[in-house]
Design goal:
Blueprint lengths: L4 E7 L3 H12 L5 E7 L2 H10 L4 E5 L8 H10 L5 E5 L4 H9 L4 E4 L5 H35 L2 E6 L5 E3 L1 H7 L10 H5 L6 H9 L6 E7 L6 E9 L2 E8 L3
Parallel strand pairs: 1-2, 1-3, 3-4, 4-5
Antiparallel strand pairs: 6-7, 6-10, 8-9, 9-10
Helix pairs in contact: 1-5
Length: 243
């Protein structure tokens, strides 16, 4: 459900630009934007220390900070915040650089009206929430795996792409920790993976489920691999066999 009110921190030292952005945001009734204004980076950081904001809108050039360093300062001191960058007409390339540093998006001054500003903010806000939910779910999955001492894996049988979790690497004691390693190269690190590769190939034509025992090349220790296939996915969990 969408929030009825969003708290916005606006860092902008130009009175005209600040007035225009607040005017545009005041036009919105659903959601309603509650705007707090700061004219310096120091003032903005103090406000972030004392309050929680849903959205930060920041100019890059303010009296006590310039360029990408402004964005770096905000996101390094207060990571996990959604930040939209305001740039000048000649700073679009710099705006793209701020996105690489963690900003959600950038808007070029003079190139947006109230409708564009609000729609851009809401799109970025929903995308930010979704990414945060995915990160939280991945964290929960990692905790569950570690408590259960099992690792997860998934193979796309059409492309051969392999996804594995950190605990899967630990269980297999693979010498190469590069998660982008191909399925064939990853399996080459195991003592005998012919049966596993044959199952993956067979799953392309029929659904499978079961479990097999695989040994680690490093010390011969065995681990159990439970598998299931559906569509073009071959996936499951693995755990060290009980002694």
């Amino acid at each position: 459900m969408a929030q009825n009110e969003l708290k916005v921190l606006l860092l902008e030292d130009n009175p005209g630009d600040a007035f225009l952005i607040k005017f545009y945001l005041d036009e919105s009734t659903s959601p309603k934007f509650n705007v707090t204004h700061a004219e310096t980076l120091k003032a903005a950081l103090n406000m972030l220390a004392e309050n929680k904001f849903d959205i930060i809108i920041s100019d890059m050039n303010v009296p006590d900070s310039f360029g990408v360093d402004t964005i770096k300062s905000i996101l390094s001191d207060y990571p996990g915040n959604m930040l939209i960058v305001l740039t000048g007409l000649t700073d679009e390339e710099v705006g793209l650089e701020t996105v690489r540093f963690g900003a959600q998006d950038f808007l070029v001054k003079g190139k947006f009206d109230g409708k564009v500003l609000i729609s851009s903010l809401m799109f970025a806000f929903e995308r930010f929430k979704l990414n945060r939910q995915i990160a939280e779910e991945n964290t929960r999955l990692d905790i569950i795996q570690r408590l259960a001492k099992v690792g997860f894996y998934e193979v796309d049988t059409l492309t051969g792409k392999l996804f594995i979790t950190d605990l899967t690497l630990s269980i297999t004691q693979a010498e190469n920790t590069d998660k982008s390693l191909s399925l064939q190269d990853r399996c080459a690190l195991l003592e005998d993976s012919k049966e596993l590769l044959a199952l993956i190939e067979k799953s392309k034509t029929e659904p499978l489920s079961g479990e097999i025992i695989i040994k680690r090349k490093s010390d011969g220790k065995a681990f159990q691999l439970t598998y299931e296939s559906k569509g073009n996915k071959f996936y499951g969990i693995m755990k060290i066999c009980a002694v």
